[in-house]
Amino acid sequence: MLRRGDRDATLLPLRASLASLGLLPAHTAPADPLLFDENVDAAIRAFQQQRGLIVDGRVGPVTQRELIAAKWSLGDRTLSYTLSAPMSGDDVVELQSRLCELGYDVGQTDGVFTARLDAAVREFQRHRGLADDGVFGPRTLRELQWISPMATGGRPQYLREIAQLRQAGPLLGGKRIAIDPARGGDDPGWVADGVSAADLAFDMAQRLAARMVATGMQAFLTRGAHSNPSQAERAKFANDVAADLVLSLHVDGSTSPHASGIATFHFGTDTGNNSSVGETLAHLVHRELLARTGMIDCRVHHRPWEILRRTQMPAVQVEIGYITNDVDRARLVDEGFRDRVADGLLVAVKRLYLDGRDDRPTGTFTFHDLLEYERSVRT
């Protein structure tokens, strides 16, 4: 972790990366090239803002990974699918976008060369009379550059996601949901009055899982009570269990005691790449929780965070209040409040699969109503 004031040999390549992105003057020699000075700090913050990261001026693993991804353009290197360490970068984003516009199913435009993208590249190669080896090299690049889609836009991936959602049907029984209680283990998150954000998130995850099981769903928690997997490990877990959706539950905190409310996030970037069903679910979750809790509306946002980007299914992250705010904390430590949150999350998932059919006003669908609906439709 590098931050302003640090001196380190890695500042030389860091400065070069920032200069190549136009965020630092390329030909101005700093007084101390190994110092993380105010210019590097400003450049890192600008980069983090561009990439939708947390803007803190620190260069940790996520910012470093994004700096590496940003240096690649399509054609700079040969791309292929590798199971152990999937390739990622802005060149992969461009490849996904180009193939998606041509009608190929690349999955989420997340910048990761997945097995799904490998299948799309092979299909494209077969259509163009190339060896379908899945390797995106110079010959495949030339073929892609020679043709252009007859029409652009229209969000073709959205149509696929909606079709899959409708094919799944309105019943919750059999649906597989990964529930991700944030932090845990050696990272309790924000702590106030002896209560930790990690413990509250885990409690709400357990309450939600119990309700899901009662409806016939399969619920999978990404961590145990005392473990703290990385974001990549949590996403891999959701992919490995073939979850239909991911709900990541967070309790926030702030140095300001006035910070308060609920915010919900789905995968997306400022360039327009996003998960359409994830965005729909995020709005359903957000509206349902606001109606049931009366908390401050911190709105729905898109972010490229790993738990949202690396999952192969729609995912949302919910920031449920600030433990550092007296009013929010009083709500969070109340079991009845956490039950309402669990009910709201479950009902939001139900509304997603109902797709407007037999729906009810926001905040009025109870857990009992939901169970009765499930039983009535089955019979």
Describe the structure.
By secondary structure, this protein is of the alpha/beta class. The chain has 3 domains: 11-70, Orthogonal Bundle (Muramoyl-pentapeptide Carboxypeptidase, domain 1), CATH 1.10.101; 90-153, Orthogonal Bundle (Muramoyl-pentapeptide Carboxypeptidase, domain 1); 172-378, Zn-dependent exopeptidases (Aminopeptidase, 3-Layer(aba) Sandwich). The protein is 45% helix and 11% strand. The strands form 2 sheets. Strands 4-1-5-8-6-7 form a 6-stranded mixed beta sheet, with helices on both faces. Helix 8 crosses helix 13 (335-354) and helix 10 packs antiparallel against helix 13 (335-354). The longest helix is centred in the C-terminal third of the chain and has 20 residues, at 335-354. The chain is globular. 39% of the residues are buried.
What helical percentage do the residues reach? 40-55%
Q: Estimate nothing, just give the exact number of structural domains.
A: 3
Number of helices: 14
What is the correct CATH architecture of the largest domain?
3-Layer(aba) Sandwich
**Shape from CA axes?**
globular
Task: Return the average pLDDT rounded to an integer.
Answer: 90
> What is the CATH C-level name of the largest domain?
Alpha Beta
Order of strands across the widest beta sheet?
Answer: 4-1-5-8-6-7
Structure summary, number of beta strands: 8
| Run of helices and strands | HHHHHHHEEEHEHEEHEHEHHH
Question: What radius of gyration results from the CA coordinates?
Answer: 22 Å
Oligomer: single chain
